[in-house]
Design brief:
mainly alpha, 71% helix, globular
């Protein structure tokens, strides 16, 4: 008697480059790898100085025409405008047809962001009372949106879409607050004439969107976006704000085409380069010793404690006072975890550190404290949310 043997396929599906590029966790993984690599290279003897100097390399021609002229500034002021444009489009869609589509829902991340800016600043001022460090009060006020969303993406679909939108909106508003703080407290007054140029660009873009329907409209829209970025940069306000404005002006029906064009270059080129450039920080014995100073304690407590406390308290007050009405009962453990991730400071916090102090030693101390606080926020926030989501998933299986 013969037997027909059917071979069982035991080979597992190979994980392709396409799978990696379309996996929501890939951005977070790549971001972390670039951060670790940058820190290691920066602190390698004989290599670190050159690596750090590379990002500070200036391009004389760009300096002569008053544009971002170091590689670091080109990344942070130019390339990151595209990142803010991408994130801004998602916020625009959600504000029109999604999770933020009513005034009360839009108020939700707005008030949370304001509390998330105020509480770290208050904690910093209390920690540094009577010292020379108080001018750094805004250092722990900002959330690094790229890193915060990158870490959140590591949890994949376990995190509700509404929480991702909440963090994205909160971080953008948070960054806008930081930009205003820099403009009014750490720099010269914005140049009014250049701001008029920004307003003129906005008016022209709105007219193009309303009255033009041919392919030329897209060319003019993008061209005026570049001009608006230039005017914004010259005005003294952080140029990435132009990316946010441009996304707000874009009609919702046109968003998918722009998202499709930007998703790969932003996620797998701009964000990794951003991480490599902005985490080139020297870690030496004196810097580590300074972590016990009031300056470091103020920064670390501001980001690690002030952010989650401020954001969670804002959510509690808004729901308790019924200022907002959520579709479901607030998931406090999830909100706390997102609040912890908002304590990832990095770029804007490091930028404010350089503006707040003229002394290089104080700048390095503040930057290292930001790095420590941001790393702890990453680890604690990710671990917290992973535990919460695992618990939720196990509960769902029992139902």
């Amino acid at each position: 008697m013969s037997q027909n043997l059917h071979p069982v396929e035991t080979r597992s599906k190979k994980f392709s480059l396409s799978d990696f590029l379309h996996d929501s966790r890939s951005v977070g993984i790549l971001l972390l790898l670039c951060t670790v690599a940058s820190l290691i290279i920066t602190n390698l003897p004989g290599i670190g100085e050159g690596y750090n100097s590379f990002w500070e390399t200036e391009i004389p021609f760009l300096r002569s025409i008053n544009l971002p002229h170091s590689i670091l500034h080109i990344i942070n002021d130019t390339l990151m405008a595209l990142f803010f444009f991408q994130v801004g489009m998602e916020i625009k869609r959600e504000s029109v047809i999604g999770e933020l589509s009513s005034p009360s829902r839009m108020m939700f991340p707005m008030i949370a962001a304001i509390f998330g800016v105020a509480f770290p600043a208050i904690i910093f001022l209390i920690s540094t009372k009577g010292t020379i460090y108080q001018n750094g009060w805004a250092i722990p006020a900002a959330t690094d949106i790229a890193f915060a969303l990158g870490i959140l993406s590591l949890l994949g679909k376990a995190i509700p879409h509404s929480m991702k939108i909440f963090l994205a909106a909160l971080a953008i508003i948070d960054d806008l607050c930081a930009i205003l703080i820099i403009a009014f407290f750490y720099g010269d007054r914005p140049e009014f004439m250049w701001l008029l140029g920004v307003v003129a660009c906005i008016i022209l873009i709105l007219l193009i969107i309303k009255y033009m329907r041919n392919p030329l409209a897209r060319v003019l829209y993008l061209s005026l976006g570049i001009v608006m970025w230039y005017f914004m940069y010259q005005s003294g306000i952080h140029a990435t704000f132009a990316g946010v404005i441009l996304s707000i002006l874009l009609p919702v029906k046109k968003i998918p085409a722009y998202e499709k064009a930007l998703v790969l270059p932003v996620n797998f080129l701009i964000i990794p380069i951003f991480a490599l450039a902005n985490t080139s920080i020297f870690i030496n014995a004196s810097a580590i010793a300074n972590l016990s100073s009031e300056l470091s304690i103020g920064v670390i407590l501001g980001l690690l404690v002030g952010k989650p406390v401020g954001i969670t308290l804002a959510v509690y007050l808004m729901t308790y006072a019924r200022i907002i009405k959520l579709k479901t009962k607030p998931d406090w453990m999830m909100f706390i975890g997102v609040g912890i991730l908002a304590g990832i400071g990095f770029t804007m916090s490091i930028f404010v550190s350089m503006l707040a102090f003229d002394d290089k030693t104080l700048q390095d101390t503040a930057k290292l404290a930001v790095l420590v606080a941001s790393t702890l926020s990453m680890i604690i926030g990710y671990t917290w949310l992973r535990i919460v989501t695992k618990k939720r998933q196990s509960q769902m299986k029992k139902i």
